[in-house]
Amino acid sequence: MQHDTHHGQHGRHDHDADHTAHVDHSTQPDHAGHSDHAGHADHTGHPTHSAGKVGWAMAARATLHCLTGCAIGEILGMVIGTALGWGNMATMVLAIVLAFFFGYTLTLRSILKAGVDFGTALRVAFAADTLSIAVMELIDNGVIALWPGAMDATLADTLFWGALAISLAVAFVATTPVNKWMIGRGKGHAVVHQYHH
Known about the structure:
The protein is an all-alpha fold. It is built from six helices and no strands. The relative contact order is 0.13.
């Protein structure tokens, strides 16, 4: 009996010792900082580009950025083509090429200012602007092509400038939802924004 009693006390002693060793984890270096994890649970302070949280203002700014480059290219292409007496198709092709060129150039310039190397900046510009510029050019040139007499108007005609201005405005309205959709999925100008922090 005494042996069993002693054995029971010995078992309790081992159990209590083991339990005591595990009671307080807060002093352990691996566990001391675990209470701070609550602060990491809330990432709402970080900018998000989820589809539901992208504002129209952000999308409009991205579209305006593309529109600026497109407008420069469009006007320059129309002026050059008209001045050289080119046909409508050749002039339109030049205008589209220059629209893409200036659209990419404006984005490229802003990314290079952030200290990014040229190769990376070029890839980002292509990824950010290609769809936006393509949609804008499709709408813009579509409006001009369908506008009676707009394709044959000269630089001195009010119709030329009026049709160009309205076509760019329509392109802006049509492209803004596209940019909103792209930014909401972390694409388009959401990629550019990463280099502006």
